[in-house]
Amino acid sequence: MGGTTVLFQLLIEELASAKENVIIKTIDVNIRKISPMPFLKIALQILHNIHKIDIISIHASIRGIVSLSGYLYVLSKVFNKKLAYRIFGGNFYNYYSNSNLILKFIIDNFVLQSDLLLVETKYLHEKFTPLHKNVQWFPNHRKMYSNLPIPSKNINRKLKIVFISHIRKEKGIFELIEAAESLPDVQIDVYGPFYDGLSVNIFENKKVKYLGALRPEEVIKKMAEYDALILPSYKEGYPGIVIEALSCGLAVLCTNLPSLKEMFTEEDVIMFEPKNKNVIIEAINQINNNRNLLYELRMKSLKKASEFDSKILTEKYIEMCKKLFEKS
Question: Cα separation of 138 and 160, whole Å?
Answer without folding.
Answer: 32
